[in-house]
Each structure stands twice: as C-alpha cells, then as structure tokens.
Design a protein that fits this description.
heterodimer, A: alpha+beta, B: 448 residues, alpha+beta, six-stranded mixed sheet, 20 strands
C-alpha cells in the first residue's frame, strides 16, 4: 500500500471525518474504509458455471460515547459521503466537541502473497476445476455428482481513529471446496473437503487433486456405513477440522463480549483449571498463510498469538478494543468485522489445541467401545449454557481398540466444561483447516486445528438406541 | 433505481451479451442493540447495489458492485459479460420470457415506519429487555435486546421486457434472556416480526424470552428411546425450511434431494399440507415478482399427502419441460438468482396445545434445535440434530429436557406427522415460514 492507503483514505480527509464524528462529543471515533473484490466459480455436472465477480467499496464510521456505540456506513468512498456518515453517527450525541489527536501513520505490514490470484487468467481457474472434477470422479463409478468451487477474495482496509492511529492492511484469500455424492441403489452419501488460506494462487499449485479425491473417498466409504450409535461413550476426534470442537466448546465462550455479559460458562474462571494439564491452546492471528490470519484486526490492532489455555488453566479471554478497556487490559487483536457495513466484535482468528505427546494409534487402541469422529460438517454452541452440538461428516465405530464400520447420521452433543475437562489425550500430530464462522449476523474466515484428541465420555446422538 | 438497471442491461448487450438482466436495490436500515437498560449500539445506513446477469448463447455470468455512477454501471455490466465467457454453455440457460402483469400486491410496505424516529425504536428495544427482566426473578439479564428495520426498493429489468419494481418494509425485535438458580444459566429466545414497529409487542417478546429461559431451569437429559414428539412452531419452521430446500427442482435435477424420485407419490401424512405462497402481505418472502421478474403465485407443494410439484425458476423449468413457479430467489444484489421458496405455509389443523399433548400421552416437546446446518444430509434427508425442550407425561407437560438429539429422515418424518396444531406463527429464521406446531408420531430421541 502507498501513503494514501491505496486511495482508500486520504489522511487529511480522515482527520476531517474524525473531527466531524466528535463534533457533538464522544470518547472515541473511528473511520474504517474498505475496498473488497472477488471471483467465484464452480464446476457442477462437469460444467463450469456460477462464474461471479464482485467489487464493492465503502466505509463505516463509529463514535463511542460511554457504553453506547453509534455507527453509520456508506457505499463508496466519496469524502462528502463519509462526512455525511460521520454526521449520522454523531446525530444522537448532544455533548461538547472533542478533538481527535493528529494522525500518525503506522506503516501497514500485510501478510505476503506470492502470486496474486487476480493476475491468474480465469481460464486457468476453470482448468483447475475441470481437473478437480476428473480426480474426484476417477475415484470410482459410484461417484455420480461432484461440485467443486473456487473462490478468491481481496480486502484492502484503512483505519483511522481519534487516538491518532492511521494504518491499513491488504488481505488476499483463496479457497477451493469439493462436494462429492456417491450412489449405490437408493443410497446416497456425500463427502466434502476444502483447502484454503491467507495465500495467493500458489496454494493451489501443489496437489489440489487430492482434495477432490479425498471428498470422493469419503462419500464412497459412507456407502458402507451403518447407522450411528446413540449414547455416551469415549470419542476420539480427528485432527484439522476436528478443531472446530474446541472452537465451539471453548473459543466462543472466551470471546469477551459473552464473558462480560455473564453469558459464557467461562465467565469468572480466569486462572482456573478448566482442563487436564495435558491441554494447551492458542488463538493466533499471525500463523503464516493460514485462513484466519491477518496483519491487523479490523480496529488496527496488530494480530497476535494469545495463549488461552496453558496446562489446563484458563489464561486469557479474546478482546476487541471496547471489551478490553472495560476489563482494563490491552486488546488481543480479535476485533473483527465482516465488512465496512458491520461493527467490530470479539472474534477468533486461528484457534487450535497445541500438539500433545500421545500416539494417535494408541489413543484409539485404548478404547474398547467408542466413536471415532474424523471430521465434522460444522457445529453450534450456546456460550451462555455451554450446550453444543456437532454434525459428524465422517465417523467410525471403535470396537476393541480398532476402527471398524463407518457410521452415518452421527451428532456429538454435550456441555463445554464437562467435555473440555474430559479430554484425556492429545495427539502428537497436528494440522489446520479452514472454516467460516457466524456470530451476530457476521461471517468471518477462521482457522481451526489440532491433532487427534480423545474425550473420555461424550454423547453420540445417532439412530441406534 | 429502474434507470440504473436499464442502463446496465443496455451496457451488457452493447459489450456482447445476447440477453441481460439487472437487479438494483436500495435499502435504508436501522439497528438498535440494548443491554443493561442502556443502548449498546445504534446503527443507520443506506445501502445501494446492482447485480447483472449476462447470457451469451447458454453461457451465464454474473457481476455485482456498489458503484452506480454511469461508468460504474458500465463496468459491472462488462464484468458480467466477461464472466459469461468463462462459463460452459448450458442448453437450458435462458432468461424468462415476458409474462403478463403481476397481480397487484398491497401491504408490503408500511409507511408507519417513518413515524418512528430512532429514539423511539431505541425505547422499544429497551422495553423488550425490561419485559424480560420484569417477568420473573430468576431472569438474570439478557444478552442483548435487538430492534432492526429496513425499507427496501427493488427494480428488476430484463432484456426481453420482463421485470418488476416494488418497495417492502420489515422490522423485527428479539432478545435472548438468561435465567438461572444457583450456578449455570439457561437461555430463551423471544421474537416478533412485522412491517412497521407499531405491530411489534415488546412486552410479549420479552415475556416469551423469559418464559423459555425460566422453563429450562432444572432441565435433565432424557433417556434414549423412540417416542412421539411435538415440534413447536420455531422448530417446525426450521424443518419446513429444510424441506423447502429439498423441494427445489435444482436440487432434484442435480440428484441432491431426498424427494428426487417422489413426484406424484405419497410423501407425507394427510395432516401435513404445504404450499409456497409469494403473495401473502405478512410474509417477508412476498413480492409481486420473483428475483428474475416472474410473477409470484401460490403453489400447492404437498396436498392429501402427495407431492404435487417441485419449486422452479426459469432454468429448472426449461430443463424439466415445466413452467416456472415463480421461485427464483436471491439474498440481495451480491448473489445471482437461484431456486428458493418465497414463503412456505403449513396449514393449521384443529388441536390446541393441550390437545396435542394429550394426543402424545408420553413423549417429548422440542422447543429448540441446534446444529441444523451440519446435522442434516441434504441429499438423503437423514438428520440428527441437537435439541432441548420438555417431557410430556400422561398428556401433561413435565420436566424440562436438554442435551439430547432427535434423529430420523425428512420423508419418514413427514409421513408420520399425526397432527398439525391450530395456531400458526411466522418464523423468519433462514427462510420465511408460517407453521403451527407439528406432532410427529415417532422419532428417535438420544440422551443418556
């Protein structure tokens, strides 16, 4: 980015807007300008379709006064429109004018991108999708439908606030996803895989075909699946997207907005032993190339690696500016927003359980009768009650220490604190996967990760009572 | 609005599209979030955007943007044509043919919304929170009480003389109450929807949240078994929304629907009657035309237990040799049209709540489900989702239940609907659904 932040926000314009925003008082004002664009396309029924391109720019202005935030946003970056937005945000305030501090530029340090996706011809991306289609269908004649999608997106942001901060970021992400459907007689099963990162097109130049083959193999495996068991039993969770379990059952409850409203089961438990000593976990917005990484959060705070659980002890919540100032701590760089049309709130970036020392084979070998949840379709938690639920997309029975029949239709259900405390083994393997997390009507990219993790007792909700 | 859309269509044709369609929208939105007797945030915005679909001999491309200057519109149109050149041809891809005038549809926009300045709607959000707190001493607080409204204008212009224009207003308020005795919290949602804030009852919304949260205090895990289950209106609506997605002809044609081979077959008990209805003034999915300008209508989907039709847009109708049912939907200018229900309406039956429980005898009433997006296989309809609710014993409500799952498959579930309750409610989560509670003869409940 150049000195005027890629044409997003001229420093003198920013100062004028901040002054306008505080014209009727307020403790804090901020302008967030953004240019966002992207391309998506898909292959379905072996035909390239759903080719779409988007380009938007706009800005959001907020004024914080006491416990209240006033917010307005506009499409486009015309300085007159931005000033109007500042006026709208301040419209309800009746106080004395406050003066913003002079802006001082903090040079943006965006995460590096090797190969800008928008410079790769569209025909190459179409060829990639055809390759995925062939690889997936090549796994077996029972694959009868396959949809693969490609998405690239770029967000350039500039942030100025009344405390004198002026900075920016430039974020590029690419992601591919494959969903395969296998059919045998009147049985049909699906398998899905994704690959994505805060990366350029270089991410897709290794072996993207493996994503398609993996999705197809999952669907084919499930054709032989038996109905999932129902009841409480030991559960071994796979690595990578298995980390969504920790994201849901702990990560959301650590977001400081839930905590401060006493709407989290983790409220008041800082420094308490919430898990066994073998568990250590982080939220890390700086992991190189990962899907949830960014140079700064959407309030201009540099992202960081935050230890949230150390040896089973709860060590930190996840903060944005407002919640941090309420607790008298520094923001942990977790103030994120979907776009300039949204207010920042505490959100996870890449959240993961650090690798432990257990051998995954041995973790399964010690289970007489249990369930092996390799991956999930997704999950949901109510941070206030701690109740969570996960849909298992690939799962197997464990019988006498061996992985046996694949299962369909399984759900894991439980309560956060119970399940977290019941983690009795963490594997020495580790990898990350991509997710899209929804909260308060805002969707942001997040990374989840872990190695194999075993929970001594958890409820599997299947159909076999 | 209309002018920008017309310019976009002309621009797309000028740079090589055989056909083009533009969708322009402008929305004014407000949102108030209240907590602890104070306004936590207050937002206001006007949002404009344009989406252009271009066809070049069966190749379809789409582009959108927010720059509605003359140059910006031309650039969006040009990108749409560029996108079409990357797509493969599809013999069924074509814009809708010109249809007659859509039926007049009154009541989509309530000018009463203008009489509610921001401080008055902020007071409404605060009143929702107060009502929840005042209802019961065991209510500790609310996570947030939210009020939101929007007034949106839409113009659709197609190169074959199709299109439409309308304005719609909508508002909603909700709160999530927190209740408990001793350690642990329970949550409960209360909500209301309308065309203008005057039709919302803040006291009723707060009370509903409080009652749901307090009702869960002392909840236990049920034992695993098969039993009759009542789905309350909100839970029934979530399932009806899933059924609507499975009845999309697009899902059917791509082999991804459990209903794919069931057209004209028995798919439900007689007690379950479902239609799509884009012309009900109360439904948030209502408009004179669908997302590609085809007039909305009423379409019976399941009657006398039989699957009458799938939901069609222009593409799926051409592919099936049928007529569009006016079911092109879109989430806004950022997404191209695709098959979607407008409003799904389940016919109410005769039994009231007490009579439904009597009919159950011993079973479970489900008042909340979680994990629907991950717990349902859309291809097979097999589902297993997290649930909470209340036990029913001897026809009477008994202890609250939590942390269990309900499992089955969508078609079997519809075939075992034993009764629909007497009172329907509009539920706007996901899609727009109006449904009464449903009594399912048998379902798998997995707890301890």
């Amino acid at each position: 980015m150049t000195a005027d932040f890629a044409g997003l926000l001229d420093p003198s314009v920013a100062e004028r807007i901040l002054g306008r925003a505080l014209a009727s008082g307020g403790d804090f004002a901020e302008v967030f300008a953004e240019r966002r664009g992207g391309l998506t396309m898909a292959i379905d029924e072996s035909r390239i379709e759903a080719v779409q391109s988007g380009a938007e720019q706009g800005a959001g202005v907020r004024v914080v006064s006491g416990a209240t935030t006033y917010f307005a946003h506009v499409d486009g970056l015309d300085p007159a429109d931005l000033e109007r937005a500042a006026g709208e945000a301040a419209a309800a305030l009746r106080g004395q004018r406050a003066e913003p501090r002079p802006l001082r530029t903090r040079e943006p340090m965006p995460l590096p991108i090797e190969r800008r996706p928008e410079q790769v011809p569209g025909s190459r991306k179409a060829a990639l999708l055809r390759e995925l289609d062939e690889h997936g269908r090549g796994e077996g004649g029972e694959i009868f439908q396959l949809r693969a999608s490609y998405a690239e997106g770029r967000r350039e942001v500039a942030i100025a606030n009344s405390e004198g901060l002026l900075t920016g970021d430039d974020r590029t992400r690419v992601r591919i996803g494959v969903q395969a459907v296998a059919r045998r007689g009147d049985r049909a099963e699906t398998g899905a895989e994704t690959l994505g990162g805060h990366r350029g097109y270089e991410l897709l130049e290794e072996d993207p075909g493996e994503i398609a083959r993996g999705a197809a193999r999952k669907a084919l495996t499930l054709l032989d699946a038996v109905p999932a068991p129902a009841g409480a039993m030991p559960v071994v969770v796979g690595g990578g997207f298995g980390g969504v379990l920790f994201h849901e059952m702990t990560g959301h409850g650590l977001e400081a907005d839930h905590v401060q409203k006493d709407a989290s089961v983790y409220a008041g438990r800082l420094d308490e032993q919430v898990a066994q000593p073998l568990l250590t976990a982080y939220d890390d917005g700086r992991l190189a190339g990962e899907w949830g990484s960014e140079g700064i959060d959407d309030e201009g705070t540099p992202t960081q690696k935050t230890e949230v659980i150390a040896g089973g002890r709860l060590t930190s919540f996840l903060y944005d500016r407002i919640t941090a100032s309420r607790d008298g701590v520094a923001s942990t760089g977790n103030g994120r927003r979907e776009s300039f049309r949204h207010l920042p709130i505490p959100r996870m970036t890449n959240t993961y359980i650090a690798p432990g020392d257990a051998e995954p084979q041995a973790m399964i070998g010690e289970v007489r009768r249990g369930f092996y949840a390799v991956s999930f379709g997704g999950g949901q938690v109510d941070p206030a009650t701690g109740d969570f639920v996960f849909g298992v997309s690939e799962g197997y029975l464990i019988e006498n220490g061996r992985v046996t029949a694949p299962c369909r239709g399984a759900t894991l259900i439980g309560n956060c604190l119970d399940a977290l405390g019941a983690i009795d083994a963490v594997g020495n393997d580790f990898w990350m996967k991509t997710g899209i997390c929804g909260k308060g009507g805002q969707r942001v990219p997040v990374g989840t990760g872990q190695g194999h993790v075993r929970i001594a007792k958890m409820t599997v909700g299947g159909t076999e009572v | 609005m209309r002018e920008g859309a017309e310019r976009a269509v002309e621009a797309a044709l000028a740079c090589g599209a055989g056909d083009a369609e533009a969708y322009a929208s402008e929305a004014t939105r407000r949102e108030v979030r209240a907590h602890g007797g104070k306004v936590e945030s207050l937002g206001a915005a006007t949002q404009r955007g344009l989406g252009v679909r271009a066809w070049i001999e069966g190749r379809v491309g789409y582009a959108y943007g927010t720059d509605l200057s003359r140059q910006g519109v031309a650039e969006i149109a040009e990108r749409a044509v560029g996108m079409a050149r990357l797509a493969d041809p599809d013999e069924f891809a074509a814009p809708p043919a010109a249809a007659g005038e859509p039926p007049p549809l009154e009541g989509l926009s309530d000018p009463g919304i203008a009489a509610w300045p921001t401080d008055r709607v902020a007071e409404l959000a605060l009143a929702v929170e107060r009502a929840a707190l005042d209802r019961d001493d065991r209510v500790r607080g609310v996570e947030q009480a939210v009020y939101s409204d929007s007034v949106e204008q839409v113009a659709i212009v197609g190169s074959r003389g199709t299109g439409g224009e309308y304005e719609a207003s909508s508002c909603y308020a909700y709160t999530q109450a927190l209740a408990g005795e001793g350690a642990g919290s329970e949550t409960g949602l209360g909500f209301g929807v309308g065309r203008a804030p005057g039709s919302l009852d803040p006291a009723a919304i707060g009370r509903e949240a409080a009652d749901r949260a307090v009702g869960m205090i002392g909840s236990v895990k049920p034992s695993s078994r098969s039993c009759p289950v009542i789905l309350d209106e909100t839970v029934a609506a979530s399932f009806v929304d899933l059924i609507g997605k499975a009845l999309s002809a697009d899902a059917v044609q791509r082999g991804r629907s459990p209903f794919a081979s069931l057209l004209g077959e028995r798919v439900a008990a007689d007690a379950f009657v479902l239609r799509d209805d884009g012309l009900l003034p109360d439904g948030f999915g209502s408009a004179p035309v669908d997302a590609e300008g085809v007039p909305h209508r009423r379409t019976p989907l399941i009657e006398a237990g039989t699957l009458r039709t799938f939901l069609h847009d222009t593409y799926t109708a051409r592919r099936a040799g049928a007529a569009s049912t006016g079911n092109a939907g879109r989430t806004g200018y950022r997404a191209p049209p695709g098959v979607a229900a407008s409003n799904l309406v389940v016919n109410p039956g005769t039994p009231d709540g007490g009579e439904l429980r009597e009919e159950v005898g011993d079973g479970v009433e489900v008042t909340d489900v979680a994990g629907l997006h991950s717990g349902v296989n859309p291809v097979t309809g097999i589902f297993s989702v997290g649930a909470s609710g209340r036990a029913i014993r001897g026809g009477e409500p008994a202890e609250p239940l939590r942390e269990f799952t309900i499992a089955g498959d969508l078609v079997s579930m519809l075939r075992s609907v034993r009764a629909a309750g007497a009172t329907s409610r509009w539920v706007p989560f996901g899609g727009s659904v109006s449904t009464p509670p449903l009594l399912i003869g048998e379902m798998t409940v997995a707890g301890s």
